[in-house]
Amino acid sequence: MRKMLPVISGRNPVFLLCLAGVCISNCSCIESGQRADFYVDQAQCKALTRSRLLVEMPEICPTPDGMALDSEGNIIVACPNYADQSQPAVLMKIDRNKQVRLYCRVPTHPETGVACPMGIAFGPDGDLYVCDNQGWVEANDKGRILRLRIRNGQVVKTTVVADGMAHPNGVQVHKGKVYVTQSMMPKVKTDQLTSAVYRFDVDDVNIKVNNTLDDANVLIAIKTLNMDCQYGLDGIVFDSKGNLYVGNFGDGTIHKITLDSQGKVTSNRILAKDTCMRTTDGICVDAADNIYVADFSENAVCRVTPAGDVQVLARSGDCDGSKGGLDQPGEPIVWGDKLVVTCFDMVTGPDKVNTGHDEPYTIAYIDMNEIK
Ligand SMILES: [Ca+2]
Ligand SMILES: [Ca+2]
To answer: Residue 227: helix, strand or coil by DSSP?
Structure first.
């Protein structure tokens, strides 16, 4: 029997506020850190165009999140269903005709009885790597990296790559390695939140993660300086040259990380930070190495050029998504001439444009011809 997780409201309020990325205290922020008043009124940030509706998702996908393209060019969407834990976590498929159907159910955790798929990425053999973020609703160390072999709508083989993770969120597969962001590492007792990128081998099995900086799989750890939004590394992508980029959600920054031929980190710097980009959730890259950023809190999508310049591409006010608005954008992906954006539509708080979870559950897009 499935064990139900509690609904997201009303439990563990401090943690939930932290998850929501809203003010957790009226602290005085350190000089070098981000703070709410760094950002300008978004009305001053002119968007290049507007988003449109791609598809409405069925009720089994109330909180669409991570995406990946399969070998046929279909979009696979992860649906952790935080907004309705009575729904089983699923992966959905959107084909080129914009038909939406169930791709597969995600294997549940043996203890919690649920699965919480967020970031997803295909590996070299077509297996799908899934961040199962068990700790998103309520803090725990039960998060997993799953490797799923999916055939004809069924998971025919499940491998637990890593287990015991506090908050796995984004994933990319690159040159035989699986790179994962852990957005929160509460065991690491630093004044500002520490988060990290973990790296596993594509063939790793049952790696036990302890969520400290002593973990052998930690590639790099970064603090989130914005004390108004203590939520760390989130979106993750590689460019065509093999540079690694991660978004530090609370700081609204994009870090550029370079690696040598042995995979060792050789540099880490902030590529982009802008008064018009408040939060950096999911990110993706185009053929010219522009990075697209879901600005979760601002209902906006931004573009970061390889030089680090930031443009707001589209932005929406508080909305339900029915007219194609950005209803709390979670992750973008380039799909032909469209920039497709999931609308997470879940989290509320004083720094969030979104004021409520609402039907319909939507995926929006931006016409890339309009943002050239
Ligand atoms: Ca909605
Ligand atoms: Ca909404």
So the answer is: coil
- Cα of 296 to ligand 2 centre, how many Å? 12
| Domain count for the chain | 1
Q: Please determine, for residue 13, whether its predicted confidence score (pLDDT) is greater than 90.
A: no
CA distance 159 to 162: 9
Q: What is the pLDDT of residues 56-89, one digit of tens each?
A: 999 999 999 999 999 999 999 999 988 888 889 9
CATH number at residue 121: 2.120.10.30
According to the model, what pLDDT value does residue 21 have?
31
Task: For residue range 195-240, list pLDDT tens digits in order.
Answer: 999 999 999 999 999 999 999 999 999 999 999 999 999 999 999 9
Minimum-distance ligand to the CA of 322?
A: 1
**In terms of DSSP bridges, do strands 207-208 and 154-165 run parallel, antiparallel, or are they unpaired?**
parallel
Cα(303) to ligand 2 centroid in Å equals 23
In a domain? residue 13: no
Note down the domain range covering 150.
30-370
Residue 21 lies in a domain: no
Q: Cα separation of 115 and 107, whole Å?
A: 6
For residue 325, report the distance from its CA to the centre of ligand 1, in Å: 9
Q: Which ligand is in closest contact with the Cα of 316?
A: 2
* Burial environment of residue 360 by CB neighbours within 10 A (0 to 12, 13 to 18, 19 or more): middle
Smallest-distance ligand from the CA of 342? 1
Per-residue pLDDT for 129 more than 50? yes
Instruction: Give the distance (Å) from ligand 1 centre to CA of residue 328.
Output: 8
In a domain, 14, yes or no: no
Ligand nearest to the CA of 361: 1
> What spacing in Å lies between the alpha carbon of 240 and ligand 2's midpoint?
35
Q: What is the pLDDT of residue 37?
A: 64
Distance in Å, CA 262 to ligand 2 centroid: 45
Tell me, yes or no, whether 191 lies in a domain: yes
Q: Is the dihedral of CA 11, 15, 20, 24 positive or negative?
A: positive
